[in-house]
User: Fold Cysteine hydrolase from Rubrivivax rivuli.
Amino acid sequence: EAGPVTVAARPFAFELQPGRAALLVIDMQRDFVEPGGFGASLGNDVTLLQAAIAPTRALLDAWRARGWPVLHTRESHAADLSDCPPAKRLRGQPALRIGDAGPMGRLLVRGEPGCAIVPELAALPGEVVIDKPGKGAFHATPLQATLQALGVTQLVVAGVTTEVCVQSTMREANDRGYDCLLVEEATASYFPAFKAAAIEMIVAQGGIVGWAAPLSAVLSALP
Ligand code: C5J
Assistant:
């Protein structure tokens, strides 16, 4: 592989190592991004998340063209909800709860139409798809073992929502020794102010959780 390349990032340059840097696309599922899913059941405006689709696709195209590792996650539960703590299912006063039947099938249940990744970003054969019962992608999943087997030490991160599953996953990854770079246009929140704040939290204090960079900075740096 080629040597490291420098991505203009905050709080300082990110030295991306070709072949060691996986693209991790978090929870770009119909249940979060389309009307009638889990996100909408909580009262959110799902159109806000659709802005992340095209930039994430640009990252996927770049990674795929180079043959670099791509991993996707889905926030999802078993049909019997045995991996969904009651405390998670009963949270709030949603119109529909996890496991209830909505217009895209049972919310956040594996195999249901709403649980699928949006068609524009669907995994290709050979790409890893990690089903995760939590907000963080390391909790109760094979993600760490998968990354180790691939020789991955850096994560370039996209997906939704910035301050929930993306930030939780970046914090988990950071504690496990991965360098994480969040691509700003490729992530979105139902609360734009939370997206902005999450990015600031990640890069503050010398990059206490990781780095952030615009899509153009990532794409222009790739060898
Ligand atoms: C949420 C996620 N927001 N993927 N999940 O419940 O961020």
In short: Strands lie at 5-7, 14-16, 21-26, 70-75, 101-102, 105-106, 128-132, 154-160, 179-188, 211-213. The pocket of dicarbonimidic diamide is lined by residues 27, 32, 75, 135, 160-161, 164-165 (CB under 6 Å). The longest helix spans residues 192-207. The chain has a mean pLDDT of 97.
